[in-house]
Structures are given as structure tokens and as C-alpha cells.
Amino acid sequence: MKDFLKNLALLGLVVAVLGILALVTGIVPVKASSGHWPITHWILDFASDRSIATHSVGIEVPSLNEPGMLTLGAGIYQSNCRWCHGRPGSSQPRAVSRMTPAPPFLPGVVDEWETEELFYIIKHGIKFTGMPAWPSGHRDEEIWPLVAFLQEVGNMNRQQYQDLLAVDDIADAPEVVVDHCAVCHAVDGAGRGSARVPILAGQNEAYLRQSLHAYATGDRHSGVMEPIAARLDEREIEDTAKWYAVQLPPTDEKPDRDEDEIREGRKLLSQQDETLKIPDCSECHGESNDPTYPILTGQPAEYLYRQLILFRQRSRGGSDNANLMHKIADAINERQSQQLASYFESLPRDRQPTDE
Amino acid sequence: MRPELIDDVSQSALDPAGVGATQIVDLFHWMVGGGVVIWLIVVGLSVYSIVVPGGHRPRLTKTLVIGGGAVVPTVVLSSLLCYALAMLPELHRPPPSDSPTVKVNGVRWWWRVQYQTDDGRTIETANEIRLPVDEAVEFKLTSEDVIHSFWIPSLGGKVDMIPGRETRLKLYPTRVGKFRGVCAEYCGTAHAQMRFDVTVMPRPEFNRWLSNQSSDAREPSQQSAIRGGELFRRKGCGACHTIRGTDARGRVGPDLTHLASRSSLGAATKPNNTENLRHWITHTHHVKPGVTMPAFQALDEREVDAIVAYLEQLH
Question: To which CATH superfamily is domain A170-245 assigned?
Fold first, then answer.
């Protein structure tokens, strides 16, 4: 028995020395070109699948059936994911097929994952693969349009995908707007049917510029906007802000206005200082206020509501002005935020935009 | 930057400058005197009983114990009680009907102050109370959020300010001077910085001050002040602050119509001067942690200069 233990210890020592030797001499190749052994591949895949399945339990899937979700998702996919995961109607991109592990060609295999799993993977990324986590830890709700898109991408052909990405052709629009912004915000800044993104047309130029800077430096949080803004140079940011500031905001009324909400929102504002102790929103967000403040009238209620919630969670960030909103957002609850947002959505924009 | 303490004015109940405070000090002194008498007798007898050796005569013992332990304290305390109760009717008597009335609302963490003018208008100011000397003044007190307590130690007792209720206090200042008022009921983060300036002044001076306060804000004449006024509007300051005679009509924060005539900033947190005003606007939370006003950190130097120039001509 004693000999056995002695031998075991000796064996352990030899293995350890060999291991250290292998480590120090660098004899084991880390090259991607040879791929994994099949057994390694299987174990890693199995472990990863199990981990994702376990950790995605309990994620609540919201309704993904809202207007404009697919467009947003396609925009995000086109801007970030297609480089590795390929586009519908094509095959796996050549360069990434030589990664170890190679990223899956998603249009072919995406149906293997549950909705919650897709969300979990996009939010957290996967260790030891090339899959990064969502660029912002503060904005989980931004992930759902991409999930909605991924649920459909398996049945999509090249044309359908292109249709989602197709933007209007306006002759004098800067290239940067067409390439980077238009899929979600439209070339004319009127948005493309999703209430999650703001209407940029007629927004204050200084505010647009400062917002892009804040996204680029990570001071304003968004997994969608941060990577895009960080890619733009100073000139492109200027061009984008200038372009959208002079576009005419859309005037068409929202079809499904909730008159009760709007009335409640108006009431809230008119009696604000006595009960809520918050200032009147339009004292800062009117059309003649400081150009570094955003104009809110006519913005989608969902977008405005989300900003109020993010301010309250201190997850929005923004320019140096962002702190002005914190105490205000603290003072109103979710219900009241919704009412105020609906009210501002219902207000008409009357100004012809001028470049300030 | 180290917070600079405000130049100190009297904040002591033992330095009375009003009828109420004088009575309270008198009462305090009599109570101390009465307490000393009782203490001396009780402790003196205890010491006597221990130190003097041998037996004591029962008759003397009885007299001393009953006299010193029961009779004297009862007489002293009853007299003090009668004396104190006799003060109440006068302190509680409402002031003459033509006395000036000041309405004060406690707000976290400042004071909304309203005067009535002779022509029935309400004049609002903040964090500063001025009173004519040798006249009774009635305060109507309430709170807009939590319970505060209104106390000017040199002028009189304190009274709670209760949301949804109006409490009253009569003060009768008898000495010209500057005094400190404080919130005497813990009301949150900046409670210790919820103070106000009290100035007691001769009647003619008081009238001049009130008539100046009742005027609208003066129009800026200098270039930078004009620019400051425009910035004040554009940056949305008027969403919270009123400056009478302009579009600024906010009621969330203090009225600034005559800000430059006040001696302090931030509810008597700091003296009112250029440097402090600049610092207040851009680093509000360093000066007064917890304050509702957000710091306007995005303003550049020139913008701050202009806004300060505008505010400093609001005499």
C-alpha cells in the first residue's frame, strides 16, 4: 500500500514536470488552422450548450411582435454580426470559416436555439470563442429586436434580407448617413417604423453631435449606437448631425394614440410643481431652448419612456447635461413616465427646422 | 474646494433679541437657579448625614428629611411651573390684527418666504426673512414635503412645519441685527444646510426693503448680463425658478427675483458672492450634497460668467 502511494506520487510528479515543460517550451500549437480534435470539439460544444441552456432559464421573453422589430434587428445584424455569421442567401464568410471554433453560419442553424438562449448568448457572448458580449451592459432591451430577427432569419432569402435593409435614395445625403444610420433612422430621419428609435429629423444639431460623441466615448450607453459612433470620425459626426438637423420632421399622426394616456400626461404637466415637484418638461425641451437639449415633441412614446426609465436607473448616460434629468426621472414612476411620453408624442412639431 | 463657513451671526437661544426668546432665557435661568437650590439641599443633607458622626436626634432628622426632601423641592418646582404657565397666555396671544404676516413653507431643503404688501399682493422670496424691530410679527408655517421645524433661536421658540397644516408663531424682535434661523427637525440629507438669514431692521428700512422686493426684477443693461438672461431662459433655469417680470415662472425652486439682495446662497449655506455663485451653479452637489438642483456642469466658463453677471444685478 505504501509503495503504491509512493509510486502514485512519483507519477504525479513526472506528469507535472512534463506539463510544465510542455507549457514553458511552447510545444503545444495554439494554431487555429488545425482545428480541435473531434473529442475536444464535442466536449466544448456539449459544455457550452449545457451552460447556455441552464443559464437562460428564467429569462422572460417579451412580445417580439411589435412594428419595426425585424428592420432594427436586420440593421444590427448587418452592422455587427454578418461579418462572422453570414447573410441569408449566401454562404459562410471565407475568412471566419478558418477560425477555431468557426462561428456558425447562422441563417442555416439559428433554429437550434431557443429564444431565451439567443438572448443569453447575445447578451453575454461565449468564452473561448470569438463571440463578444453585448457592447453595453446597461441596455438589455436593445437585444430583443436582434432576437426577433434571428427567429426569422432561417427562413429568409437574400431578397427579403435586402428588402429589410433597403433605404430611400436621397441624392445629397451624406454617405455616412446612408451607410450607418439609415437602416434604423431612415435617410430623412423619420424613422423606419419602430417606436424604439428616436426621430432624428429636425432634432437640434448640437444635441445630435454631443450624443454621437457620448456614444463614441461610452458616456451614453447603447450596444447598438456605441460601436457605430465609435467608428465615425469627427467629420462624419458633423455631417450626420448637420444632415438630420435640417430634415423636416414627419407630421403624420400616430394611428394608435391612447387619448387617455395623453390626457393624463397633460394633466400631470399642468399641475406638476405642486404635486410632483418637477419642472415643466417644455421649459427645457421646447423648440427655442438650448440646442444641446433635445426637442421631444413628436418623438415616439416608447423611446421617450425608455429614456426616462434609463435615467432613473442611471443607465442612460449622455452628454454633460444628462445629470439634469436624474432628479426628475427619480420623481416620476413608470406609469407617469408612460403618460408624459404619450403626451409628448402627441404634440405636433410646428417649426421648420433651421440650422442653429 | 473646502466649503467656506458662512460668517457667523447669532444662533443662540442664550443671546435673546426678541420677547419670546427673552422669556425663554429668563425661564431657563430661574430653572437653573431652582435646580441648584434643590440640588444643594438634597446633596447637602446627604453629606451631612454621612459626615457628622454619631446618632442624630429623631425630631431634627424628621424635620430635615421632610423639609429638605419634600417641602422645598415641591415649593420650588411648583413656583417654576406657575411661572412657566403664566408665560403661556402672552406667548400664545395672537398678535394685533394689523401686524405684518410672513408665510413660510419648508421645502427640502430651503424656505419659501411670502410677504403680503399693503395692496394685498403676495411677494415671494426665499431663505431670507427681514423683520421690523419692536413690532409683533405673525408667521404662518407649513411644509410642502416632510415635517420641518422653524426656529430662530435668538428671537423665540421653535414651531413644527407640518405638511397639510398651518401652524402659527408670533415673534417680537427687540434688537436690530442679523440672526440665524434653522430647521430644527431632521428632514433628510441636507437638513444641516437648511438654514436662513434673519435681519431685524428699523421700520423705515424694512419698508424700503419690502418695496424693493415687491418690484419686478430689473432689466439687465450690461452686455454680459443680457446674454446671461437669455442663457437663463434657454438653459431652462426658469423651469424651476421664478424671476418676476420675465418668462421664468418655475415654482420648484427658490424665487430669484432679488437674489443679489440676499446675503447667502443655498439656504444660508455660503455667503452670496461671485465665486460662490459660480461654484453653486456648476458644482451644486459639492456645496450642498443632496440638493434637488442639478449641477450645470456642461456650461462653459463664458456661459457661467454671463449667467452670474445676470443674477448679480438682480438687486
Answer: Cytochrome c-like domain (1.10.760.10)
